[in-house]
Amino acid sequence: MKYISVLFLVFMIMVIVLADRGSLPHSIRAFYNFQNGDKLGHFILYGLLNFFFTRAFLSARLSQTRSRVTLSVGLTLALLIALEEWSQRYFSTRTFDLVDLTASFLGLIVGGWAAWRIKRP
Question: What pTM value is reported for the model?
Fold first, then answer.
C-alpha cells in the first residue's frame, strides 16, 4: 500500500503543478468537465489520497491506536490541502474556493473513515 500511496501522491503533485501553470492536459480536464465536476474531483482524489496513506500507516503497525493513526494522517493532509488551496490565490490560472476546500475535506473524512473501517492492516 505504501507504493500506491507514493505513486498517487506523485500523480496529485503533478496535477497541482500543471494546474498552477495553466497547462493541465485535456485528458485530465475532461474527467471533471461538467457542472461541479471539480468539486467531485476534489472529493474523490483527496478521499483516495487519505485512504491510501491511512492504510499504509496502519499497515506499518505503529504503536499508536488505529484511531490515532487515522486522525493524524487526516489532519496532516487537511493542513497540506488547506495550504495548497490558499496558495491558489497567488496563481493567475487558479482561484481559491471554499467550496473546493470543503469538498476536499469531505473526501478526507470519507477516505479516512473507509480506511479505518477495514480491520486488517
Answer: 0.90
10-44: pLDDT as tens digits: 999 999 999 899 888 888 888 778 888 889 999 99
**Secondary structure element (H or E) that encloses residue 101, with its range:** helix 98-117
The three-class DSSP label of residue 93 is coil
Structural domain that includes position 50: 2-117
Closest CA to 106 of 45, 57, 58, 61: 45
Q: Are 14 and 33 a contacting pair, CB within 8 Å?
A: no
Helix intervals (H) in 22-89: 26-29, 37-59, 66-87
Q: Are 50 and 113 in contact (CB under 8 A)?
A: no
